[in-house]
Specification:
Chain A: Its EC number is 2.7.13.3. Chain A: Keywords: ATP-binding, Chemotaxis, Kinase, Nucleotide-binding, Phosphoprotein, Transferase, Two-component regulatory system. The complex is a heterodimer of chains A (690) and B (153). With 690 residues, chain A is an alpha+beta fold. Chain A is globular and about 105 Å long. Chain A is built from 23 helices and 22 strands. Chain A folds into 4 domains: 125 residues, Four Helix Bundle (Hemerythrin (Met), subunit A) (Up-down Bundle), CATH 1.20.120.160; 102 residues, 2-Layer Sandwich (Alpha-Beta Plaits), CATH 3.30.70; 135 residues, Histidine kinase-like ATPase, C-terminal domain (Heat Shock Protein 90, 2-Layer Sandwich); 131 residues, Beta Barrel (OB fold (Dihydrolipoamide Acetyltransferase, E2P)). In chain A, helix 1 runs antiparallel to helix 4. In chain B, strands 8-1-2-13-12-9 form a 6-stranded mixed beta sheet. Chain B is globular. In chain B, a hairpin with a 2-residue loop joins strand 6 and strand 7. The chains are: A alpha+beta (690), B mainly beta (153). Chains A and B meet through helix 12, strand 21 and strand 22 of A and strand 4, strand 5, strand 7 and helix 3 of B.
């Protein structure tokens, strides 16, 4: 079907709109008087409605349509937002999100929205009954008769805007006879129009157009500041449009329209009325719309201008670019080897130049895959709001550094752990209001969510000003659950005690709540982050709050590694887990309870023979008087790993071992291709240290 | 109507086998194989196939036949099925053949010591040639590796 090619666009854009709806609703909840935000929300909802209708997702369209009706009343100052309306609208957003999710998963996007639609309708009706004076101006949302006669409200809007220097147009658009998706084209035209101004009236109605209930042409009354030529140009750029007929509506023709409608007195009356309602609304809108836009990085799409120009790229294409590039990297290493063997000056120079260029290229390719953490962070304000509400707490979420970039693969994985940690912060960290007041703390708890770069890592921190970790209680629970023995418990430092909350099956909650404590503990968070090559630490002050700090690598696909030899085989160790390299004499290795250990910088650490571990076919360290060793680290544990010979440090490209071997591979975490084309296995130091 | 099936023909312990041509990505000569520790013996390791790391299985070992030294004729057939990509080491591979679907019979109980579940059918070609068609899903079943791993530990 032709729809397929629009599908990915639809999904991307719906997600964008849903995100912006969520964000702006939250903002509106903070500043319910800001009509500017309502306008943005309305526009998003409207676009979403148009898109869904053209794609044939009826339930999506009907729900957004009802939302639009409510929002329309709000933006025209006929309805004030209140808790009930916010809750209903948020519920609608959830419903929309699950419908879009269903579509993404290949479903039909169908869902029973009847109840929500009823609630929205009730809101529209209920407040209408209250505001009697508003009835006269309710025309724009109501279905008007299908002809292109303007009602007084629309007429006055036209004349008002002409007076204030806008241009009014009567536009007739004809789509080509062979056009396949008339509604989609019409939608694109409307999109162009709405980006540049305001559609006052359309014939047939927008709804009918969306449902493809029109022949080949449609016409609109339209207000804009854009001049005729460029408007015509923009509309005709939409493909499959046969003709665009643009007429400027001047004062005279407007008067004629007015004349045909009725007495002019009545109109002036309405004009004044409208002017009265419009004026404060617009004067509020401008400054208010500017200040929040300046605060949060992504401005409303319609303001455009200085926004960076971007294109959407299929992630698979980026992956294949990455693959091709890594092959280039392998060839580069090979060329460097050859050049050093051949020792010809001009060859060496060329290879060096190529090395520099490919290093730059590597940077760019890596950057292409970088996505701001924003895409993960921006679902949290909503989550914290809902959490706080259901727990009857007051919580402010402060996000800093949402523009910090991380590799796409890391972004995809980091969401879940963060959800857990933030839930933990709101549920276990921040105290209930009464308790906070008693402690002399502000009623509203604050959760900080920060992201920042530091060296080759990105840090994400979650910090709240709640009750902090209760050391004795954690220890008590840990001992009760058998995580530590009472003797061990006495020796633990504060930080070590804090880390206990990451142990499997550990929960500090007194009772199982709705949000956490259902057995999914922080241990899952920790293992996920470790799997990403990062680690997580906790610092806490009793009574003052807790901070989780997550350290993540910038990218997962290229790492610095130490290559080592083991007889005829080569292995790679990620540099990030190596503390030191050195050699050890046979005599320095002692045994303790049958385990081999050495004395390393005043501490006793275990000795692991890599040859024995991988069952090397042609090397054994027992035969050597002095062996090379690597000191590796996992958290605060260390171990010495005996190897045959160091080859050197090198940047390697991580390759999966293939699905067939995925799973229980023990010490091997992946593979890489060396300069000579051979495959070397990457040893996972985390698996070596138990 | 009998359908025509294009298969790649290879040999293993003097018997002829076939894999549907659309499951075969390429056929390679022997290349250096990197051993992967803690895998069943029939998993020979991984190779670099133009930038992609691919696991290699000795098909003789997989079927419990005696493994032999690799020769000039040994080939690696890279197959992909059920989004798994695996290379099979076979004694030789040198033919592509059209098999009519009505010439394919159900697998006999046992063929040359190979379990019947690895075989999807046997095709008769001419008077005396028999072609054993492999059931890739079973041959590549990971359950068996997992069992073997547990057995080995």
């Amino acid at each position: 079907m032709e729809m397929n090619q629009y599908m990915s666009m639809f999904i991307d854009e719906s997600n964008d709109h849903l995100q912006s709806l969520n964000e702006n609703m939250l903002r509106l909840e903070q500043q319910p008087e800001d009509i500017g935000i309502v306008q943005i929300i309305f526009r998003s909802a409207h676009t979403l409605k148009g898109m869904s209708a053209t794609m044939g997702f009826e339930d999506l369209a009907s729900l957004t349509h009802e939302m639009e009706n409510v929002l329309d009343l709000v933006r025209n100052d006929k309805l004030r937002m209140n808790g009930h309306i916010f809750d209903t609208l948020f519920k609608c957003l959830d419903a929309l999100e699950s419908m879009v999710q269903d579509i993404i998963n290949g479903g039909t996007g169908k869902s029973d929205v009847g109840e929500l639609v009823q609630r929205l309708k009730a809101i529209v009706k209920g407040d209408f009954a209250g505001g009697a004076a508003k009835a006269a101006t309710s025309a724009p949302t109501e279905a008007v008769s299908a002809s292109l006669v303007l009602d007084q409200f629309q007429l006055s809007v036209l004349s008002q805007s002409m007076e204030s220097g806008h241009k009014a147009y009567f536009i007739e658009v004809k789509v080509r006879d062979d056009c396949l998706l008339k509604a989609a084209r019409a939608y694109m035209v409307f999109d162009v129009l709405e980006r540049n101004g305001e559609v006052v009236k359309a014939h047939p109605s927008v709804q009918e157009i969306e449902q493809e209930q029109f022949d080949r042409s449609f016409s609109v009354y339209y207000i804009s500041q854009v001049d005729e030529a460029s408007l015509r140009d923009q509309i005709s750029r939409v493909s499959e449009i046969e003709s665009v007929n643009l007429n400027v509506v001047d004062k005279e023709s407007l008067d004629m329209l007015e004349g045909s409608k009725g007495s002019s007195e009545k109109v002036t009356e309405t004009v004044q009325e409208v002017a009265a309602t419009l004026a404060p609304a617009s004067s509020v809108a401008t400054p208010a719309a500017e200040s929040p836009a300046a605060r949060s990085a992504p401005a409303a799409p319609s303001t455009g201008g200085t926004a960076p120009r971007t294109i959407r790229v299929d992630i698979e294409r980026l992956d294949s670019l990455m693959n091709l590039f890594s092959e280039l990297l392998i060839d580069r290493v090979r060329l460097e080897q050859l050049a050093s063997e051949v020792k010809r000056n001009d060859l060496t120079e060329t290879v060096e130049h190529m090395a520099r260029v490919s290093a730059d290229l590597q940077n760019i390719v890596l950057k292409l895959r970088m996505v701001p953490v924003e895409s993960v962070f921006n679902r949290f304000p909503r989550m914290v709001r809902d959490l706080a509400k259901s727990l009857d707490k007051k919580v402010d979420l402060v996000i800093v550094g949402a523009e910090t970039e991380l590799d796409r693969t890391v972004i995809d994985e980091i969401g879940d752990p963060l959800v857990h940690l933030i839930r933990n912060a709101v549920d276990h960290g921040v105290e209930p209001i009464t308790e906070r007041v008693k402690l002399g703390k502000p009623e509203v708890g604050t959760v900080h969510l920060r992201a920042f770069h530091s060296g080759n890592h990105v840090f994400i921190e979650i910090e709240e000003d709640g009750k902090g970790i209760n050391r004795p209680k954690v220890l008590e629970t840990a001992i009760k659950r058998g995580v530590v023995s009472p003797d061990e418990a006495k020796k633990l430092s504060d930080d070590e005690v804090n880390m206990l909350i990451f142990a499997a099956g550990f929960s500090t909650a007194d009772k199982v709540s709705d949000i956490s404590g259902r057995g999914v503990g922080l241990d899952v968070v920790k293992s996920k982050i470790t799997a990403l090559g990062g680690h997580v630490t906790v610092t806490s002050t009793l009574g003052a709050g807790t901070k989780f700090s997550i350290q993540l690598p910038l990218t997962l696909s290229i790492i610095a590694a130490m290559l080592i030899k083991l007889g005829s085989e080569k292995y790679a160790f990620p540099l990030s887990s190596i503390v030191e390299t050195g050699s050890v004499k046979r005599s320095a290795i002692r045994t303790l309870h049958g385990n081999r250990i050495i004395d390393y910088r005043q501490s006793i650490i275990p000795v692991i023979s890599l040859a024995a571990l991988v069952d090397s076919p042609d090397y054994r360290d027992e035969e050597e008087a002095e062996t090379e060793m690597l000191i590796v680290r996992k958290g605060d544990k260390q171990a010495a790993i005996l190897v045959d010979e160091f080859i050197g440090q090198s940047e390697i490209v991580l390759k999966p071992l293939g699905k067939y071997l995925a799973g229980n591979l023990g010490v091997v975490s992946g593979a890489t291709i060396l300069g000579d084309g051979h495959v070397a296995l990457i040893v996972d130091p985390n698996a070596l240290i138990k | 109507m009998a359908e025509e099936l294009k298969v790649i023909v290879f040999t293993l312990a003097h018997e002829e086998y076939g894999i549907e041509v659309d499951k075969v990505r390429t056929i390679e000569r022997m290349v250096p194989i990197t051993r992967v520790p803690k895998t069943p013996t029939f998993v020979k390791g991984v190779i670099n196939l133009r930038g992609i790391v691919i696991p290699i299985i000795d098909l003789r070992g997989r079927f419990g036949l005696a493994e032999t030294e690799y020769t000039e004729n040994s080939r690696i057939i890279i197959v992909s099925a059920n989004d798994l990509e695996v290379g099979f080491i076979v004694d030789s591979a040198n033919d592509v053949m059209d098999v009519m679907s009505d010439k394919i019979e159900n697998p006999p109980e046992v063929v040359g010591g190979i379990k019947a579940k690895y075989i999807s059918g046997v095709a008769k070609i001419g008077e005396s040639r028999l072609l054993i068609l492999l059931n890739l899903t079973e041959v590549l079943s990971r359950n068996e590796i997992i069992q073997l791993e547990q057995f080995g530990e």
